[in-house]
Amino acid sequence: MRSLLLLSFVAAVVLSSCLASDLNVGRVYNARIVFRKKANYHAIPLKKRVKEVFYADPHQQILRGIIAKDLDHSESNATITAGGVGFSFANIRLKSARGHGLNYQIEMFV
Fold first, then answer.
1. Which of 24, 55, 71, 81 lies most in the core, judged by the most C-beta atoms within 10 Å?
2. How many domains does the chain have?
3. CB 94 within 8 A of CB 54
């Protein structure tokens, strides 16, 4: 009984992490936010929306954490294509599902 409960809990955690479309990289605790942007792009029928969000710190501070949260909980995804944690810049690629828009809140921490 106990092993079945543990197995179902692990399966739920793995499934929720696989289906999540949010991007959480690095540590954001005790970090200062330096960039916040809401990326909201409307849907185009039968097309995938692909947008790039770029940030470069003017003071060359190293990024400690990046969060890209999907506010619509859709099937879109966010990936880091350049820089990121450990660099002073980051390029995030947002890609929607076909026929859907993008609605992300992007935050970067130093």
1. 55
2. 1
3. no
